[in-house]
Amino acid sequence: MPSLPHVTGAEIQRALERLGFHKVRQSGSHVIMKRESRGCVVPMHAEVKIGTLAGLLRQAQVAPDEFVQALRG
Length: 73
Fold this sequence. Notes:
It is built from three helices and three strands. It has helices spanning 9-18, 50-60, 64-72, and strands at 22-27, 30-35, 38-43. The protein has a three-stranded antiparallel sheet. Strand 1 (22-27) and strand 2 (30-35) form a beta hairpin. The longest helix is centred in the last third of the chain and has 11 residues, at 50-60.
């Protein structure tokens, strides 16, 4: 399993959109995204901490490998 990279909120949003998520709404600096019944909250910060990213991926039920692949894609 590759380690999670340091990424911005916008990069996370683009990767999740590649994985089939879509933006439902935005509340301040947080974007709420959904895919089917799964959802997650993406903080639109300049750099998202690794632990926050790991929690976000757990919430979205996305494997880290799958996320890293979508980042590159």
